[in-house]
Amino acid sequence: MNKKAWFILGVILIVFFAIVSIFWLGEKPKNETIILPEFNQKACTQEAKICPDGSAVGRTGDNCEFSPCPDDKLVGNDKDEHGCIGSAGYVWCEAKQKCLRVWEEKCEK
After folding, report:
1. pLDDT digits (tens, 9 = 90+) for 63-106
2. How far is the C-alpha of 108 from the C-alpha of 91, rounded, in Å?
């Protein structure tokens, strides 16, 4: 091949690569909008509330309120049908129509 043929082949290759490069590099990225899900996460403070039974509860929920204390029976929460607290020593005195401690006040019969 003579010099003229090599020159023409070189020009054709340069033009070819230029056209391919223009199409390949000139591609515009697609304008796609990606919608991410909303995360409404909320963090509560790490405070603790001490319940009457000695256990502790933390804050929870959307309003960060303290969780309710367990429903265990509390000391002194053992009232009888008259409202007397037996664990505190109170008994019903029929004569006086009230709760009393027999070692503090006598129940006359």
Report:
1. 888 988 877 565 667 788 888 988 888 999 999 999 999 899 88
2. 13
Q: How confident is the model at residue 13 (pLDDT cuts 50, 70, 90)?
A: very high
The per-residue b/e assignment along 14-33, b for 16 or more CB within 10 angstroms, e otherwise, is eeeeeeeeeeeeeeeeeeee
CA R_g for the chain: 44
87 in helix, strand or coil?
helix
Residue ranges of the domains in the chain? Answer: 1-29, 41-72, 73-109
- Note the pTM of the prediction, 2 decimals: 0.33
| C-alpha 35: how far from chain center | 24
